[in-house]
């Protein structure tokens, strides 16, 4: 970035300067735009900010950009970023309210994921707002599951994001209860299964069974699914009893 700031823009063809700017992250693009009047004008270009908007929020409805009050791509990006921060805060609050003892029922977990889908969260939003080391791992898991299940982000990209956020080794414990099988006219006791697994393993094929349970939730033969912190006392559950 320092080299770009010191570089004389007038010696660069316009398409080359745009190519350089288009390879930058938003924070670096803003820094470059503050180093001179010429770079400032170039870094406001709609072609740059349209690409950033579409990359970050691929689920946005095209009708948004045809609104007569649309203020340009840069203005839209800034406004949308602030809205996503506020909406992410509401999802965080919801999960925290549903998990007072560091355990979360799967229906609340799936509801949080659906909320992210409804507000058109993008992969970058998850990385910025949910893949935080200081956040409860249950919230990290919501972001991870949303990326895989709704956004269909490649597992390799998710793993890279987990590693760069330093949360790939954070663990959750998933326990589920299955309806007891019938044996010679008698129904046997309900079965309980428990797995403690890292977020990185959940993003790969190492935890297909657990991810499948989280995807389906409590339906059919699965009576209940509960998620907790791996090191929490709440993962020492008693036997399931119908409520």
From TrEMBL:
<dbReference type="InterPro" id="IPR039588">
    <property type="entry name" value="FBXO4"/>
</dbReference>
<protein>
    <recommendedName>
        <fullName>F-box domain-containing protein</fullName>
    </recommendedName>
</protein>
<dbReference type="GO" id="GO:0019005">
    <property type="term" value="C:SCF ubiquitin ligase complex"/>
</dbReference>
<dbReference type="GO" id="GO:0000209">
    <property type="term" value="P:protein polyubiquitination"/>
</dbReference>
<feature type="domain" description="F-box">
    <location>
        <begin position="6"/>
        <end position="52"/>
    </location>
</feature>
<dbReference type="Pfam" id="PF12937">
    <property type="entry name" value="F-box-like"/>
</dbReference>
<dbReference type="GO" id="GO:0031146">
    <property type="term" value="P:SCF-dependent proteasomal ubiquitin-dependent protein catabolic process"/>
</dbReference>
<dbReference type="InterPro" id="IPR036047">
    <property type="entry name" value="F-box-like_dom_sf"/>
</dbReference>
<dbReference type="InterPro" id="IPR001810">
    <property type="entry name" value="F-box_dom"/>
</dbReference>
């Amino acid at each position: 970035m320092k080299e770009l700031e010191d570089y004389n823009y007038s010696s660069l063809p316009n398409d080359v300067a745009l190519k350089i700017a288009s390879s930058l992250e938003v924070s670096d693009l803003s820094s470059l735009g503050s180093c001179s009047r010429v770079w400032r004008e170039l870094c406001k270009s709609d072609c740059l900010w349209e690409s950033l908007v579409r990359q970050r929020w691929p689920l946005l409805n095209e009708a948004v950009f045809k609104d007569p009050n649309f203020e340009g791509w840069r203005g839209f990006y800034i406004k949308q970023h602030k809205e996503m921060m506020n909406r992410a805060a509401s999802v965080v609050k919801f999960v925290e309210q549903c998990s007072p003892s560091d355990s979360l029922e799967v229906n609340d977990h799936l509801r949080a994921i659906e909320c992210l889908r409804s507000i058109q969260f993008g992969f970058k939003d998850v990385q910025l707002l949910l893949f935080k080391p200081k956040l409860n791992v249950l919230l990290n898991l919501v972001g991870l599951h949303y990326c895989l299940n709704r956004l269909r982000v490649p597992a390799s990209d998710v793993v890279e994001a987990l590693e760069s956020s330093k949360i790939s080794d954070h663990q959750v414990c998933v326990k589920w209860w299955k309806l007891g099988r019938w044996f010679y006219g008698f129904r046997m006791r309900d079965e309980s299964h428990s797995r403690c697994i890292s977020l990185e393993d959940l993003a790969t094929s190492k935890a297909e069974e657990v991810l499948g349970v989280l995807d389906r939730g409590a339906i059919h033969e699965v009576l209940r699914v509960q998620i907790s912190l791996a090191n929490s006392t709440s993962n020492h559950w008693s036997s399931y009893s119908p409520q």
